[in-house]
Amino acid sequence: MSAPNKSYDPVEVEALKPEEIERLRDEAIAAFAAATDLDALHEAKVAHTGDRSPLALANREIGALPPAAKAAAGKLVGAARGAVNKALAERRTALEAERDARVLVEEAVDVTLPYDRAPRGGRHPLTTFAERLMDVFTAMGYSVAEGPEVEAEWLNFDALNMGPDHPARSTQDTFFLKDADSVVLRTHTSGVQIRSLLAAAEPPVYVICPGRVFRSDELDATHTPVFNQVELLAVDEGLTMADLKGTLDHMVASLFGEGISTRLRPNYFPFTEPSAEMDMVCFVCRGESVGNPDRPCRTCSSEGWIELGGCGMVNPRVLVACGIDPNKYSGFAFGFGIERMLMFRHNVEDMRDIVEGDVRFTLPFGMEI
Amino acid sequence: MRVPLSWLREYVDLPAGETGRDIQTKLIRAGLEVEGVEQLGADLKGPLVVGQVLAIEELTEFKKPIRYCQVDVGDANGTGEPQNIVCGARNFAVGDKVVVVLPGAVLPGPFPIAARATYGKTSEGMICSARELGMGDDHDGIIVLPPEFEPGTDAIELLELVDEVLDIAVTADRGYCLSMRGVARETAIAYGLPLRDPALIDVPPANSYGPLVKVEDQYGCDRFVARSVVGVDPAAKSPIWMQRRIQKAGMRPISLAVDITNYVMLEMGQPLHAYDRHRIDGAITVRRATQGEKLRTLDGVERTLDAEDLLICDNSGPIGIAGVMGGAGTEIADAVVDPETGEVTGTSEIVIEAAHFAPVSIARSARRHKLPSEAAKRFERGVDPEATKAAAQRAVDLLVLVAGGTAEAGVTDIVAPHPVHSIAISADLPDRVAGQEYGRETVVRRLQEVGCTVVGTDVLVVTPPTWRPDLTDPNDLCEEVIRLEGYENLPSTLPNVPAGRGLTEAQRLRRRIGIALASAGQVEVQNYPFIGEAVLDALGIESGDPRRETVKIANPISHEEPSLRTTMLPGLLGALHRNVGRGTTDVALFEIGRIFRVDGTAETLYQAPRLPVDRRPTEDEIAQLDAALPRQPYRVGAVFAGSRDPQGWWGKATVWTWADAVEAARTVADAAGVELTVRQDQHTPWHPGRCAGLYVGEVLVGHAGELHPRVIKAMNLPDRTCAMELDLDLLTEGGAVKATGPKISTFPVATQDVALIVDEAVKAADVEAALRAGAGSLLESLRLFDVYRGESLGEGRKSLAYALRFRAADRTLTADEASAARESAVAEATARVGAALRG
């Protein structure tokens, strides 16, 4: 046995009575439970687990106990403190979760507030529509060819079998230049076709020629003196009108959907022979409005067909003017106005809207068409 | 060409039930552009009858004279009693035969007729004018019929008021379809029916005692048939059937002789001319005009002739422009009625001309004198030279039949020798052109159907008919075969296109620019390239500036804007103005397109050679064509006005500024992969203190900034409007900088800020260049984050604050290394631009 602890204080030892420890423990747990927010919990924590809290003081008393009592007291106090800390942690987690949830509620905003802040831009549908066409044909292997808008008459007319007195030449409504000899604003992009043939040492030539062209019409709901055309030229060995038809069918199916095909009607153009007018099946009614007054179609005026433009087999005289042997090579060509196609594809009712540059017209078309 | 079905059926026995729409469909397939079918008298309903005016009471108490008439309409009204009718027209007398519409009928409009009270009387129907019956636009009174018809006769049938008329737009190659004969031929082929050719009539052979004709220009006139008819009754009028056919074909009945020539022209396609023989002095002569010669044409206009004009002359001089329009001097005289005796005097002896003229000559004369006559329209497109005699004969026959004339026996027929033009084609050429097998037999049959003579087996020698001057080449013959076999039956195949390379770099670039600028909030426009002096004045562009030297259009749409743009700004600013005017006040627009410049062009500008087309031009000739053209570089322009970022719940608005204009140029340069340098510049029409010159290396490629306030005022633009214009061709001349994959250092960055005080005149770009040069290779990036001006800095000074980021590829930089680099940067700035470190 060891000597009795001189500093043994029976009064102090009172604090280490199991009942007392349990009371302190329960008081602390109750105080934590009563804390309604993290601040209150912090106060309770200081009061019940701080250096000067009764349990801490009780813990300190253990050292004064006789060695034999130390272990039991230590165990008793340790268990109580453990329970208190656990309760504290649990309460903190609960309160933190409550707080986090509350912050999220408080931070809520009206996400329907309009944010029309960044300026909105857009590309002109004439540009994007021409690009779409180019993509159809570049995917087939064609190149895109371009040329000047002010063009020599030889390239715009003569080489296309439109001699000075050709009746078709007077109907082209050409803009002529002042004090100029044989230079005009091009009336079609066909001059680019000629340039492509001249540039190629030898066929095959497969080009698509988009671009701005000019005819001396006044601007109204359906006419514009400046418009955009896309023309195609293919010159190779053994090309046929059936190839022309197939190429047109492929184009309209690409632009207007599967099942839309074309038909050819005989027509006359000096640069093609045989020549044809090309129509496509109306992509809106698919012909169902024909003879069906209950379901009229505005797009095709219930005709079932939409007129696209002119086409044909390249007139061998055109090949000769470009130094290409018409006995060895043949070709086909077609051309149409992009404005017109844009109008019926997108229900544009007035040509003036296309040319006037009003942003309200352009914006709905976005970046691609 | 307007083709009445009733007339067409005279030449082709079409099935009875065949409608105009049916025929339209067939003819469209065969290549005739039938634009529509007019339904004449579709809503017309009788009773519409012949009436005879029995009595006229003049009512004078009204504003205009009114007639109250009693008209015998036979039994048509059921009673046989005269019909009481009020009429406002005055061109008839008691005893005249008129057309009466009775109550219960419906006139075209539709316009139902009922008995009604008017001018104090009850009018039981109406006496009709041609216009009310839908016969034509003539409105000179009511129709007075020839006396031979009985009152009560159905006038709907008499006047052939119910019919269908095909409206055909005849293309330039199908002149023969400007006639009933030609359209009937196509119809007959389309239906596989025989054709009754109106030109197949008996014609006496030529002899030497016909009208005297001398052809001095056989190139211009290779055929001249002349006939004469005497004893023509000047009072004779065109029969109703003839008038009606002429009306339905879209022409106007005028007088018997003129109507007959027009009728035969419509029937056979051969333009005719009728002369009053008494007014011709000597022989009819065909020759070219002498420059400046004068002729008063039928329309009363005195015309000064060109040496190229082909003329019909007599001893007195020109009496007509061949194939275009006759002269007033030899015109068939109007019939004159002697008021005393009732005797009618006028032309009684007529010479008929049926000639064939060179198409080009006629086309040029018609264009020169702005006379697109029915005759010229046909000659230009080519008429059948072999139809001349039949046409003259037909006119003679009609004059005899209708006008009581006597045909003279003389037949003049002057023929210039004509080589027969044949085309040799391989029998399978149509198959090879179409991509479909027709076979030789089909090819031959189809060619024969259109009138060709065909001989040969593997190679066919084809002689086109005289009415098809358009058939000159093998492919022309192919078209005939393929169109008659049906374009709709062509197969659909795809050629084997060789593999392509997609868009060119320039084409891809323009797309990228469009997407980049649109993504940056700008809207693309496509403006007309037309400008005028006014806008160049408003922009303050002075004479001598290359933008003043415009390409000018001889026949512009507007004389206010006769030139092509030399800069993108006029169109863009016009569109900006339009948008603002329509209430869109915050606008940013861009356009990519060509401008037209004569500076830097060859001396041969506008002098394009006229090259032949029977061979490829030489390289030199191609170069000459190009040298005749103005420069047409691609440009991109942009304009800005109003707010970039409007006021909202997030805060105040920010406006588009000069800096956005410069930024747009950078956006374009970035898209092009080109490094753009910005320098202070002064250039019209920009604000002299807010104009950036845009450079690639030492090459000036464009400008950006705020517009000059004077320009803004002159063009009525929003305050502070900004603009940018870049020459894409110049921008990309040196090619794009090819991006090389950077080595990414994973060592930490060392950031150092520095504030430098410089004179106000020092440009930020120069400070930045100095810092970059001084900082050396450790500098990763540099950014200006503040510009400060304040009293503490002193008058005319500013402080520029930069954030510099240093990093090494191979190690963590020490603080000393970073500081040394920073100090070196500052030292360089001090040396170059006098920068002082702000304490």
Quick one: how many beta strands of chain B? 45
Biggest interface, which chains? A-B, 106 and 111 residues
Q: In what order do the strands lie side by side in the largest sheet of chain B?
A: 31-34-35-41-40-39-38
The 3D shape of chain A can be described as: rod-shaped
What is Rg of chain A?
45 Å
Count of individual helical segments of chain B: 21
**What is the number of strand segments of chain A?**
9
Give the N-to-C terminal Cα separation of chain A. 101 Å
- Please estimate the helix content of chain A: 40-55%
Principal-axis shape of chain B: elongated
Structural class of chain B: alpha+beta
Largest sheet composition of chain B: 7 strands, mixed
Stretches of chain B where pLDDT falls below 50 for ≥5 residues?
A: none
Q: Describe the biggest sheet of chain A?
A: 7 strands, mixed
Structural class of chain A: alpha+beta
Radius of gyration of chain B: 41 Å
- Sheet with the most strands: spatial strand order of chain A: 1-4-5-9-8-7-6
What percentage of the residues of chain A does DSSP assign to strands (E)? 15-25%
**β-strand amount of chain B:** 25-35%
Task: Jot down its keywords.
heterodimer, A: 369 residues, alpha+beta, seven-stranded mixed β-sheet, B: 839 residues, six-stranded antiparallel β-sheet, 21 helices, elongated
